[in-house]
């Protein structure tokens, strides 16, 4: 049986997305979140 990645039980509403774009605009491309860029912008290791 393949393993499934756990998913958060919340979703990003429009207000949260706007706030996130203000904090890390480089993490968005084509209207989607680039998770690797977001992680880097927040100081995570690549």
Task: Explain this structure.
- Helices cover 37% and strands 9% of the residues.
- It is mostly helical and 46 residues long.
- It has one domain (13-46).
- The protein has a two-stranded antiparallel sheet.
- The radius of gyration is 13 Å and the shape is globular.
- What Rg is obtained from the alpha carbons, in whole angstroms? 13 Å
Q: Largest beta sheet: what is the strand line-up?
A: 1-2
Number of E-state strands: 2
Tell me the helix content. Answer: 25-40%
Instruction: Give the low-pLDDT segments.
Output: none
Q: Structural class per helix/strand content?
A: mainly alpha
Beta-strand content bin? 5-15%
Mean pLDDT score: 84
User: Topology as H/E string?
Assistant: HEEH
Count of distinct structural domains: 1
The biggest beta sheet reads: 2 strands, antiparallel
Number of helices: 2
C-alpha termini separation: 29 Å
| Overall body shape | globular
């Amino acid at each position: 049986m393949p393993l499934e990645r756990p998913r958060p039980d919340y979703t990003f509403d429009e207000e949260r997305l706007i706030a996130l774009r203000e904090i890390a605009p480089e993490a968005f491309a084509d209207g989607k979140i680039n998770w690797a860029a977001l992680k880097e912008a927040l100081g995570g290791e690549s």
